[in-house]
Design brief:
Layout (H helix, E strand, L loop, with lengths): L50 H12 L2 H10 L6 H29 L3 H4 L1 H4 L5 H33 L10 E2 L2 E2 H19 L2 H30 L16 H18 L1 H5 L2 H4 L5 H34 L6 H8 L2 H34 L6 H14 L2 H4 L3 H6 L1 H6 L1 H15 L3 E2 L21 H24 L9 H19 L14 E2 L7
Antiparallel strand pairs: 1-2, 3-4
Helix pairs in contact: 1-8, 1-12, 1-14, 2-9, 2-12, 3-9, 3-12, 6-7, 6-14, 6-15, 7-15, 8-12, 8-14, 13-14, 14-15, 19-20, 19-21, 20-21
Length: 520
């Protein structure tokens, strides 16, 4: 039956003055359970990020080697360039809508992704989505650091002749030079992360535009060298597809775009919580997603298209493109730029998420910084360079974990918008009292757990079985949509049949009412 509205578990009190508080720290109220609370997980004292800060976040997320290769690969699917652009626009608009949806509950309450999940999964059950997202981020943290290390390798090989000999010695599958580059970047990222969210914000504010400057310069150089008349934006080979045959390919391209952003989109609340208003977050998403992504994609295809007349072959990897130019200044600037770009996406997508996620599991023992360092150390132990190029290894590790992102997203959206009607009792997310509104059944909401089990199993099957068996191979492109849709519908149905989430009153002063007029 519906949980009764309980007496608030903690009375409000005046926050610590900002001048004496650590930047980014939250307000820990009397009555908050220490097993659920630390300053990193508590509701924020101040929310100061502007639209530009959110815009810069998405720039860091888009401007990477992976983003470059993904955008370029879509133009080689065999469909016309205008169809690729349509797919890019539709895909990124879907991402924008979903990012706005997941942003609101965290921006309104000032809490990160794992904490807002307590309202849906229960104060203990929320550890399940936190651990899943944290493990995915930890694995990709290692991969992105490895990719950035490859960019740094080209700088060493160009300017330190003796470094070539280091390629002949390897340990655990990685060359000595690779270990040196990996270690340099690992330490640099850890140092930046340890400086806190304000330092990270300043870094991404600078990194995104800096990458654009170099990308524009690279595009101008390649186009000038190739001659504008020698550039074709059609990167695919073979006969063009008929319009009817191109529709499924366009749909797959749209799904690829959404899937590429599914990880940071799920835990976008870790960043939107810092937004000064939901309106500012939405404005930042507009500039950072459709506008930024489309411009970056056009730059990408210009660079890739120009490599055909300039180098005699299509090159979709920016690192390889920079190496092919073979000019010392270009190698130095390009190598360091793509290092910066990859570090940017690694920090925002794969460091901050597990920091909050792992801290949520044991707040008294694991701070935000400690959670991030757990992910950093774990990323090395996974030796990502050994399985990154192995399709089967990725399919049965990240393929399975990644397939759970869709159901987690669907459950959160259904819980906040359809069931809770955008009403959250913030203080109860930090209480283990049996009378607390998110205690459910010993801290677990069985409706959320059963939805994750069922929708997750279907989503994993749709992601793993088609490529493994060769049956309906295109189906795996839609695993996120399958999991998200099923998670949303099933959770809503279970809550309708056997309600667990509390029916909160909009007039309750202890409840944040995100749907109230004038709150955006």
């Amino acid at each position: 039956m519906v949980t009764e509205i309980a007496t608030p578990v903690a009375a409000p009190h005046a926050p610590t003055p900002p001048s004496t508080a650590r930047a980014g720290a939250g307000v820990v109220k009397p009555g908050y359970d220490p097993a659920l609370t630390n300053e990193d997980l508590a509701p924020l004292r101040e929310q100061r990020w502007t639209s530009y800060n959110i815009f810069a976040f998405w720039m860091s997320d888009v401007h990477s080697v992976g983003g470059y290769v993904t955008a370029g690969s879509l133009f080689a699917l065999g469909i016309a360039s205008w169809q690729v652009l349509v797919a890019l626009v539709v895909g990124i608009l879907i991402v924008q809508v979903f990012a706005n949806l997941v942003a609101k509950p965290s921006q309104r309450t000032g809490v990160p992704y794992p904490v807002i999940n307590r309202a849906v999964f229960g104060v203990v059950g929320a550890n399940v989505p936190a651990i899943i997202r944290g493990l995915i981020a930890m694995a990709w943290y290692g991969v992105q650091t490895f990719l950035a290390a490859q960019s740094l390798n080209i700088v060493f090989l160009k300017f330190v002749p003796g470094s070539t000999a280091l390629l002949d010695h390897s340990f655990l599958g990685l060359s000595a030079l690779g270990w040196i580059s990996y270690a340099i970047l690992w330490v640099a990222q850890a140092a930046l992360f340890s400086m806190g969210m304000e330092a990270i914000r300043r870094f991404i504010d600078w990194a995104g535009p800096a990458v654009y400057v170099v990308m524009i310069a690279l595009a101008v150089y390649l186009v000038a060298k190739a001659g504008i008349g020698n550039i074709s934006l059609t990167l695919h080979t073979g006969a063009p597809m008929s319009f009817g045959a191109s529709i499924p390919v366009m749909l797959s391209a749209i799904a690829i775009v959404v899937s590429y952003f599914s990880g940071p989109m799920l835990n976008f609340g870790d960043f939107s919580r810092y937004g000064r208003s939901f309106r500012a977050v939405k404005r930042g998403n507009l500039w950072g997603l459709p506008v930024n992504f489309l411009f970056f994609s056009i730059l990408t295809v210009l660079c890739a298209s120009a490599t055909v007349p300039v180098f005699g072959k299509l090159i979709t990897d920016p690192i390889e493109t920079v190496q092919a130019i073979d000019a010392p200044f270009a190698v130095l600037l390009g190598g360091l730029t793509f290092v910066t770009a990859t570090v940017g996406i690694n920090i925002v997508a794969n460091f901050i998420s597990p920091a909050f996620d792992f801290s949520n599991v044991a707040p008294r023992k694991i701070s935000w910084r400690a959670g991030g360092m757990i992910a950093a150390v774990g990323s090395v132990l996974l030796t990502p360079w050994n399985w990154y190029g192995n399709d089967q290894a990725i399919l049965y590790t990240l393929g399975i974990l990644g397939a759970l992102i869709g159901p987690l997203f669907g459950i959160l959206i259904a819980g906040y918008y359809l069931v809770a009607k955008q009403r959250v009792a913030v203080d109860d997310m930090y209480s283990k009292e049996p009378t607390a509104r998110y205690w459910y059944r010993n801290g677990w909401n069985p409706n959320a757990i059963w939805t994750l089990v069922v929708a997750g199993a279907v989503s994993v099957a749709s992601a793993v079985l088609p490529p493994a068996t060769g049956v309906l191979p295109w189906l795996s492109n839609y695993s996120w949509f399958i999991g998200c849709g099923l998670g949303l519908v099933l959770f809503r149905a279970l809550e309708h049949r056997s309600p667990r989430m509390p029916a909160l009153s909009a007039d309750d002063p202890t409840v944040d009412h995100g749907a109230a007029p004038g709150r955006d």
